[in-house]
Amino acid sequence: xxILNFKGFLPIEEKPKEFLKFREEVSELLNSLDxxxxxxxxxxxKQFDITENTTNxxxxxxxxILGEISKHLI
Length: 74
What we know:
Radius of gyration: 12 Å
Structural class: alpha+beta
Strand content: 25-35%
Number of strands: 3
Order of helices and strands: EHEEH
Low-confidence stretches: none
Oligomer: single chain
Shape: globular
Largest sheet: 3 strands, mixed
Helix content: 25-40%
């Protein structure tokens, strides 16, 4: 099972609904991967960047798995 980290907000900060929805959907789609993925929220673009990837999947393969949700990635 993949370890997914989502950075960009402190635990006590209110998170945008897009952040919460992305986190929920990505967790469902990538739960079968082995390794660790870190997604950092970039406020300027209102999108996520993959800042760490220790899975056996490339950035392109991850985008393909995510499908329509990948529009939220830089």
